[in-house]
């Protein structure tokens, strides 16, 4: 797994970082978020096995130095990326998130796991089954047909497909968290 996160913190205003800092420190006085606290923080409760696997891979993607905890900088970097990052930065991060086993490629099982988990967490009804959706993604963007999505196939394919891009962006909609943060913490 290459450490090529292009995350910059430049575009966060001082006021926003203060709000995020306050929120983080209120909910996590130790300054380090474990996976258990992470789930509490993001209001993830009663997760099914696959949703839990997804939340766990999201946590690992946030935990950039892989020490098993999310510290404040990682938290801000992640939020900043998810909320304001350029499409390319976001996709790079999604790729890391979706490549559950860190092999450098996304295979069909990994994609299916993610789709199923996202659907379970978001609880939204879908016309297309997760299996069909995964097949469609592979049909569209696995350009060399080897059954795995390489980084280039993923980046190129998603960016050239309005619908996939929108689906991906919605899959990690953190707006309710932002609302909680910006609404202020008592
Ligand atoms: Ca960490
Ligand atoms: Ca993989
Ligand atoms: Ca491929």
Task: Summarize the structure in words.
- With 186 residues, this protein is mainly alpha-helical.
- It has helices at residues 14-27, 35-41, 49-62, 72-84, 87-98, 108-122, 130-141, 151-159, 162-171, 175-182; strands at residues 32-33, 70-71, 105-107, 148-150.
- Strands 1-2 form a two-stranded antiparallel sheet.
- The longest helix has 15 residues, at 108-122.
- The radius of gyration is 17 Å and the shape is globular.
- The termini are far apart.
- The structure holds calcium ion (CA) (3 copies).
- One calcium ion (CA) binds next to strand 4.
Short description:
With 186 residues, the protein is mainly alpha-helical. The chain is built from ten helices and four strands; from the N terminus they run αβααβααβααβααα. 61% of the residues lie in helices and 5% in strands.
SSE layout and pairing:
Layout: H1 14-27, E1 32-33, H2 35-41, H3 49-62, E2 70-71, H4 72-84, H5 87-98, E3 105-107, H6 108-122, H7 130-141, E4 148-150, H8 151-159, H9 162-171, H10 175-182
Antiparallel strand pairs: 1-2, 3-4
Helix pairs in contact: 3-5, 3-6, 5-8, 6-7
Bound molecules: calcium ion (3 copies).
């Amino acid at each position: 797994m290459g450490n090529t996160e292009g995350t910059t913190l430049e575009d966060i205003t001082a006021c926003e970082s203060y709000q995020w800092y306050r929120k983080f420190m209120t909910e996590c006085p130790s300054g380090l978020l474990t996976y258990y606290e992470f789930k509490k923080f993001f209001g993830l409760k009663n997760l099914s096995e696959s949703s839990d696997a997804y939340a766990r891979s999201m946590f690992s993607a946030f935990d950039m130095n892989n020490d098993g905890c999310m510290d404040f900088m990682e938290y801000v970097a992640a939020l900043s990326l998810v909320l304001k990052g350029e499409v390319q930065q976001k996709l790079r991060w999604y790729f890391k998130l979706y490549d559950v086993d860190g092999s450098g490629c996304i295979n069909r099982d990994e994609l299916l796991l993610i789709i199923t988990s996202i659907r379970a967490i978001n609880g939204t009804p879908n016309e297309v089954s997760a299996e069909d959706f995964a097949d469609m993604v592979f049909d569209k963007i696995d350009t060399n047909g080897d059954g795995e999505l390489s980084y280039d196939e993923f980046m190129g394919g998603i960016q050239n497909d309005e619908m996939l891009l929108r689906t991906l962006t919605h899959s990690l909609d953190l707006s309710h968290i932002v609302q909680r943060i910006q609404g202020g913490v008592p």
